[in-house]
Amino acid sequence: MGIFEIDGSKTDAFVNHFEKMMSINLTEIKITVIIPVLNGAATLGELFAALNRQTVQPDEILVGDSSSTDESVRICKDNGARVLSYARENFDHGGTRSALVQEASGDIVVFFTQDAIPVTRDALENLLRALLADEKTSCAYGRQLPQNNATPIASHLRLFNYPAVSYVRSFKDKNKYGLKTIFISNSFAAYKKDLLQKVGVFKNGLIFGEDTCTLGKLLLDGYTVAYVANAAVYHSHNYSLPEEFRRSFDIGVLHSSEQWLIDTYGSAEGVGAKYVRSVFTMLYKERKFFQMIDCLLRNTLKMVGYKLGRSFTKIPATIRPYLSMHTVWWANNK
After folding, report:
1. CATH T-level fold of 4-234
2. What does pTM read for this prediction?
3. What per-residue string of b and e applies to 265-281 under the rule 16 or more CB within 10 Å gives b?
4. Among candidates 51, 60, 102, which has minimal Cα distance to 82?
5. How is the chain split into domains, by residue range?
6. Tens digits of residue pLDDT in 39-90
């Protein structure tokens, strides 16, 4: 069965939870898989092959394509997906996903990104069973494992953020976990559609982090989130030094724009400091001394980027897009 945590502590309640999960008849549940796509031909074939091997098959697959210029649309249609097209300049992390949810016929909507590949045949099944085991669970997200080409630093980040221990968290866990309470990723996540619609689905106009903001609202409404370690996808990024800066800048912009997240759940600095200690310990133990220098540069850039993002309104509007990974967003949010 493995280890399971409820409200942040290891408990024998996992036995009852496990029995509930396994008793669910998934054939009675209608499932929609949703995949936003932009020039994803390099990975979409592998994703669909993995989806076709799943022990539970979705009733429909919706793809939101942002004007891809490669073979993405053909690959999706060849694999039975319904493709909805959007102008690239109009893509919005929250708004586009919300529009796709409105098109979904499923009771459950499962989000993938185009480069998140299920590891096992029962990944989707395990995610759905965890979601449906408790009526208070509004959403569930899976583990992300590093891809074969992941650098040691990229690998460690995935293992740090996505441990081998499953858990269920609620609003009261904010006192222990702070902002980490609302950690989630739409790279592989499932939601009960009625509860998602109850909080307005995903907010439009965010630079990114639509999943985090929605989870924050769901927990405030008294629902819980399940992290499912035995529902895993391969998904990682080998960011360059400038990309590390830009991504952290965007996180700072999100936290500044959505100050209520910090006010409600706490700051992000504590989580960042814990990660820095963890990655440096790993590199030292493995005697990767040169990479410790690289890691120091990365985390310095991330800290500076985040601080600048938190104060982005003080930066000239013409400069902000050059500090960000989401340059199109700035054109629509001047």
Report:
1. Spore Coat Polysaccharide Biosynthesis Protein SpsA; Chain A (3.90.550)
2. 0.91
3. bbebeebbeebbeebee
4. 60
5. 4-234, 241-332
6. 999 999 999 999 999 999 999 999 999 999 999 999 999 999 999 999 998 8
